[in-house]
Design brief:
By secondary structure, the chain is α+β, with helices and mostly antiparallel strands. The chain has 2 domains: 225 residues, 3-Layer(aba) Sandwich (Rossmann fold), CATH 3.40.50.300; 121 residues, RNA polymerase II/Efflux pump adaptor protein, barrel-sandwich hybrid domain (OB fold (Dihydrolipoamide Acetyltransferase, E2P)). It is built from 9 helices and 20 strands. It has a 6-stranded mixed beta sheet with strand order 6-7-8-3-9-10, sandwiched between helices. A 5-stranded antiparallel beta sheet has the order 13-12-11-14-20. The protein is globular.
């Protein structure tokens, strides 16, 4: 069931168009991620949904009701900001209780709900302390608690993990997934981190320059990106993109690349392609193999020779940067295999065209 509908919203600040026709929907009980770089429009979108920004155009519907002109207080939503924004002079208990006190909830019920939230977020032991005495993770939990103690129908999260270190971010990602599972609450989570979006989001919408570029499940965005922007934003390490040009001889088509010729069947394309058109080949690092170490069932369509340019050890895996005729290709190897390779070493790579993506170079639009 659709719970939130954002319909063609725009927000203008003078001549600056922060949002340009943003549309997406969030299902009831869904963990939905809004993924984009800084200044893409994520925060403005969340603030518009919450009623903190006046829309220049469009509408926001929630639980079947048009909330476009509704005040902030009546929307049944809570928002967690990038900064924890806790009241430094109040105890953790008072911070958690504040929204309920403001709403006039009876004292007995306030005590009960604060205790429930504190136990859920594992901060019961901090209730008498001030925010300044808490760790970053504890402060984040208190900020979450203050948002959910009101029992909102929708929780908006604006880059809540940005100010935490890597270990805490990892722990809090798991914490958010646990809370979502236990509370069954609809969550809209804005982040510039594709790892956060891929690990937590049931669906993701990519936003760029105030426009939604594409939305779908993590698997859909990874396996069939609609353009080079989506392909580059989703997946780590970043996808390899190499420019080439279509060459036609008789009824045979090929893509002329810096490292050789790639045969392609243009009848599989979703648009007309002509000789001389410039295309970009996209290959995920995980889909490139060392020719001498390919699985028995692997039938390579393309083999290229290169030289190891750089190794990037990441613990259990290593990223190899391979110089192939002036183009750098990345591939991922298990650590125990990567130790056999070092900068300056010659190497032969193989991949299958069925694993690759093709895009128009000028527009970035996917063609296969």
């Amino acid at each position: 069931m659709t719970h939130l509908v954002v319909n063609n919203i725009e927000r203008h600040f003078g001549s600056v168009k922060a949002l340009q026709g943003v549309s997406f929907d969030v299902h009831e009980g869904e963990f939905f991620c809004l993924l984009g770089a800084s200044s893409a429009g994520k925060t403005t979108t969340l603030r518009a949904i919450a009623g903190l920004e006046e829309l220049s155009q469009g509408s926001v519907e929630f639980a079947g009701e048009d909330l476009t002109e509704s005040p902030v207080q009546g929307r049944g939503m809570s928002m967690i900001f990038q900064t924890f924004a806790l009241y430094p002079h109040l105890s953790v208990h008072a911070n958690l209780a504040y929204p309920l006190v403001r709403d006039g909830v009876p004292r007995k019920e306030i005590k009960q709900r604060v205790a429930e939230v504190a136990e859920l977020l594992r901060v019961t032991h901090t209730l008498k302390r001030k925010p300044s005495t808490l760790s970053g993770g504890e402060q984040q939990r208190v900020a979450i608690g203050r948002a959910i103690v009101r029992r909102p129908k929708l929780l908006l999260l604006d880059e809540p993990l940005t100010n935490l270190d890597a270990k805490l971010r990892h722990d809090m990602r798991a914490e958010f997934k646990r809370l979502h599972r236990e509370l069954g609450m609809t969550m809209l989570y804005a982040t510039p981190d594709q790892l956060e979006a891929l690990t937590m989001g049931q669906r993701i919408a990519l936003i760029r320059d105030g426009k939604i570029v594409e939305s779908g499940t993590p698997r859909e965005l990874y396996s069939a990106p609609s353009n080079t922007f989506v392909a580059s934003m989703v997946g780590s390490p970043v996808i390899n993109l190499i420019n080439g040009k279509i060459s036609t001889q008789g009824d045979q088509n090929s893509l002329q690349m810096p490292f050789g010729e790639v045969p392609i069947a243009t009848q599989r394309f979703n648009m007309s392609i002509n000789s001389g058109d410039e295309l970009t080949l996209g290959v995920r690092p995980n889909d490139i193999h060392i020719s001498s170490d390919t699985p028995a069932e692997f039938n390579a369509d393309m083999s290229v020779s290169g030289r190891v340019h750089l190794t990037e050890p990441l613990g259990d895996v290593t990223i190899l940067d391979i110089d192939v005729s002036g183009s750098l290709l990345k591939l991922v190897l298990p650590e125990e295999k990567a130790t056999s390779y070092s900068p300056g070493q010659d190497i032969e790579l193989s991949f299958q065209l069925s694993d690759a993506h093709l895009f128009m170079t000028e527009t970035g639009v996917r063609v296969n």
